Amino acid sequence: MTIIICPGIHEPNLTESFIAGWLYADSDKKPDTSLPLHPHILVIPTEGIFTLSGFHIWQFMQDCLHNRLKSPVIFISFSAGVVGAIAAATQWQMMGGNVQAFIAIDGWGVPLWGDFPIHRLSHDYFTHWSSLLLGSGQDNFYADPSVDHLTMWRSPQAVSGWWVNSSGGEINTRKNPLTAAEFLHLLLERYEPK
C-alpha cells in the first residue's frame, strides 16, 4: 500500500513535520523531522498552483508508481491540496486504480464525493460541521479545543479532538478524546491490506 501525501500551499518543512508527528505519535521517541521518509509514502511536490491540479498529481503518481493501478493507495491531503487530490483520486480510480481511502485535512469548502471511503479532519467544530454539507464519510475528526489551521498539518500528534461518526452525528465512544495522529493511525489500520 502506498500513502499519497498531497500538501497545501505552505512551507515544505510543515509537511516533514506532519509526517514525523504522525508516524511517531504512538512512540516514546520525540518526532525527528530529519528522518528519511517511510518507503511507502509518496509526497506530491508542491510547486506553486500544481497542488491544485488533479492532472499533475495523477501524472506524478503514474511516473512514480509506474501504472501499478491495482496496488492500493490512500490519499492524505491538506488544505488547498485537497482540491487536486480528490480529482487525482477520482481519475486514478476511473483508470482502474485501487483507492482504499481518501483523507482530507482541513479541506474546507471542497466538495468530496467518490466511490471510495472519505474521511475529514477539521481544525475546529465549525469547519467540521460546515464541511459535512459538501460530502464526507462515516468517520471524521475535529479538534477540540480548536487549533490554528496550520497546526493540524504541522503537529497532528499535539491536536486533540473527537472522532465523530457522521452518519448519525454521534460521537464515537471507542476512544475519546484522541489526537489527530491517533485518528490517522486508526484509519490506516482499518485499510491496511490483510
Give the total of domains.
1
Gyration radius, rounded: 15 Å
Task: Provide the structure class.
Answer: alpha/beta
Shape: globular
What are the segments in which pLDDT stays under 50 over at least 5 consecutive residues?
27-37
Mean pLDDT: 82
How far from one another are the termini?
11 Å
**Major sheet, described briefly?**
9 strands, mixed
Strand content: 15-25%
- What's the level 1 CATH class? Alpha Beta
CATH topology label: Rossmann fold
Q: How many runs of DSSP E, i.e. beta strands?
A: 9
CATH architecture call: 3-Layer(aba) Sandwich
Binned, the helix content reads 25-40%
Number of helices: 6
Listing every helix as H and every strand as E from the N terminus to the C terminus, the arrangement reads EHEHEHEEHEHEEEH
List keywords for this structure.
194 residues, alpha/beta, Rossmann fold
